[in-house]
Amino acid sequence: MVQIVISSAGAGGLAEWVLMELQGEIEARYSTGLAGNLLGDLHYTTEGIPVLIVGHHILYGKIIHLEKPFAVLVKHTPGEQDCDELGCETGTRYLVTALIKNKILFKTRPKPIITNVPKKV
Amino acid sequence: MKRTREEVDATLQIAKLNAAELLPAVHCLGFGPGASGAGGGDFCLLELEPALCQQLEAGHSLVIRGDKDEQAVLCSQDKTYDLKIADTSNMLLFIPGCKTPDQLKMEETRCDIIHTEIFGFSNNYWELRRCRPKLKKLKKLLMENTYEGPDNQKEKDSNHSKYTTEDLLDQIQASEEEIMAQLQVLNACEIGGYWRILEFDYEMKLLNHVTQLVDSESWSFSRVPLSTCLQELGPLEPEEMIEHCLKCYGKKYVEEGEVYFELNADKICRATAQMLLQNAVKFNLAEFQEVWQQSVPEGMITRLDQLKGLALVDRHSRPEIIFLLKVDDLPEDNQDRFNSLFSLREKWTEEDIAPYIQDLCGEKQTIGALLTKYSRSSMQNGVKVYNSRRPIS
């Protein structure tokens, strides 16, 4: 049988992230993939409503406090640097990197931004 | 190139959004240089119930346990959960350093632009559902090599399988506390660092030593002194085994610095019944009850309800009979358990079947719910009975 440990550094070592939930998929404009690219601007109205501008779209969403928080687990496959006094680790482990207690959900249809003809400078 | 506030404001203008209706801070979201999908297996999302979240915040670990051919479970210190992957048609982005409106409002220094890097994204997550620990294997492993006393040949032979607590955690899909609780239920004993189940006859031999001593000393069952037991019985059996027997069949307490045990009459009567019943396929009920009462220590009263989950009475046969049926010999899976019970007897009353399905009840499942799900009810002679939903061969 396999035992895979999920270890946690405790509250001091755990960051709090936010989850953003979007319908559909995000595609990179260019074939270089998503990494390194901008997604968009996230604003909040004074009432606390999230507003996301992505490309030519505006999305209105809501903040949801999660009844069941999430943990972000990062896999750690042992290499030589993992040997301690007891010897080398033989198994895969996960490290809890962050907890997510809130999510921003966008589920309404995005509104297209109709751009005007650019003003003459 | 990072976006500037001017660029953000220009976008707001094009989008015809009124900056006055927005909080001053904007998060410019971008994908980090290493951002990737969770499909690569390097990271994932685990859904937690609040109690588990607290445990992680306290620095405790969780462990996933399972064999290649088993369904994986996740264990905390004291609970076990089924682990499944839940898919969502939505895209989930994990964003470090992103603040909620409430958090922004609480900040003393107002900033107007926050460059935020998305760590990664996923369209599934690990979902947990509390489940019963899979403890049947524990008894099976410990029965491979039962303990029959220190002088037994088996103890001199190191070939026989023995398990430490760590070995058990390596083999059983359950949390450590659940395993420890079950070891106590099984009357297991830690001998030389290994967990052992006593061979039943050996366990009865120890118990008989104790009850005979109680009788000859005319002690009260609720005031059995440990030191005298060890003194008198020490020549016959190892002291640790005498004390283990007292712990299994009694409750320890201290009075004026002396250790005493209050013997549990129900457990002793139950063990005596098992000893009698295991030697025959079935017993005439009336005869059994007489022999049973005579076999227990004088002063203890036998009652059939002491035998729940151990023996079954058949009141429809003539004469009425009783036979050994141990719940821990039955299958662990719900459907398999009901199938085996219905193969044994076609129709059951709730009173008779309850002890044999009690252990299947989860956190929120009751006996009634299990019966509704796995059986069909009908009336027989004015009594409600349950039978199988499908034909049993």
Describe the fold and architecture.
The complex is a heterodimer of chains A (121) and B (393). With 121 residues, chain A is mostly beta strands. Chain A has one domain: Immunoglobulin-like (Sandwich). Chain A has strands at 2-8, 15-23, 38-44, 50-54, 57-60, 62-76, 93-106, 111-112. Chain A is extended. The relative contact order of chain A is 0.31. Mean pLDDT of chain A is 82; it is low at 85-89. With 393 residues, chain B is of the alpha+beta class. Chain B is built from 15 helices and 17 strands. The mean pLDDT of chain B is 92. Chains A and B meet through strand 1, strand 2, strand 3, strand 4 and strand 6 of A and helix 1, strand 1, strand 2, helix 2 and strand 3 of B. Strand 6 of chain A pairs antiparallel with strand 2 of chain B, so a sheet runs across the interface. Chain A: It comes from Trichechus manatus latirostris (Florida manatee). Chain A: GO terms for molecular function: DNA binding. Chain A: Keywords: Cell cycle, DNA replication, DNA-binding, Nucleus.
